[in-house]
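Hi C.,

You asked whether I'd gotten around to modeling the 385-residue construct. I have! Everything is below, sequence then structure, no commentary in between.
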Amino acid sequence: MARFQYVTQIEIDPGAVRLLPQECKAAGIARPLVVTDAGVRAAGVLDIALAALAGVPHAVFDQTPGNPNEAAVRAATAVYLENGCDGLIAVGGGSSIDLAKGVAITATHEGPLASFATITGGAERITAKASPLIAVPTTAGTGSEVARGAILIVDDGRKLGFHNWNLLPRVALLDPDLTMALPPALTAATGMDAIAHCLETFMSGKVNPPADGIALDGLRRGWGHIERAFSDGRTAREARWNMMSASMQGALAFQKGLGCVHSLSHSLGGVNPRLHHGTLNAVFLPAVIRFNAGAESMRKDDRLNRMAHAMGLPHGPDYADGVAVARAVFDMTARLGLPTGLAAMGVGEALFDEIIDHAMVDHCHATNPRLASRDDYRRMLQESM
């Protein structure tokens, strides 16, 4: 059975952040907790959002870590409860939005955070009591503003997914002006995250024709505009708009499922939380694309050629092995100044067994178009060094 659901209200336009007061009212939020991070505050972006909230009582939590964890969820939940908040506004990248989703659970439900994780069977324990959330993304990468899930590191070090439609933001305010000051390196890393979502969800063997169409258009936008956003991001408003759309589209599509790229990046991100998720996705993509080329669903639906076409690459029967698409991703990663291998990120083979252990049980493992074994994961890690 194929099931798909698209329900998020999305506003995408310069100045969309000014809609915050009316969207709070529409969501029934009278006293929000604004969840953000120190970098967003230091860049002055938080001030823009708080100015839009003038007249709306609120509290602020600005200590979201780069990879949100259970300790930060507890700290933010304490601020939420101490201030009598009744809803959340996430202003930031995927980390802040995912942290806010964690608060939406723990502020309204009893039990340890891990008990609500997808792989523990806890998804159905997340009820409509979850705090309402408005998402204001300040990067173009994760797409968490339109996704029903969050990725959080729990106290035992596992990086787990939490998925339920009650976590879906009530509205996503996509204001490309908020991304204009994003540094080039972060523009590159988050942009490759968006491209990874579009590529990997399109490769997934699950049936979801709307997701396929959304992913391919998002890939076209992301691939076509990331270099301009990277090199001229402070003035290239059109490129920023398209990257924000690509990010949103990748996340709308990944309800279809992701795969080995994310199994590996979730796992390694849990082992070493200092590593950027988008950069890890970029590094793992080439090896996974080559591995996936052997999947029956990839050949049957001509998926590699359809991906290559969206990327403006040569395509046809001679390119069905995935080598051309994989090489193009590798070359793009290099042009954007990101690491192209794990060794450059300080990752050695001594970590492989631990990475594989967690990848095998990650919620993205089962939706890869070709089921990976431990040996397959080891080869992909070796090829990504």
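If it helps when you're writing up: The chain has a mean pLDDT of 93.

Thanks,
B.
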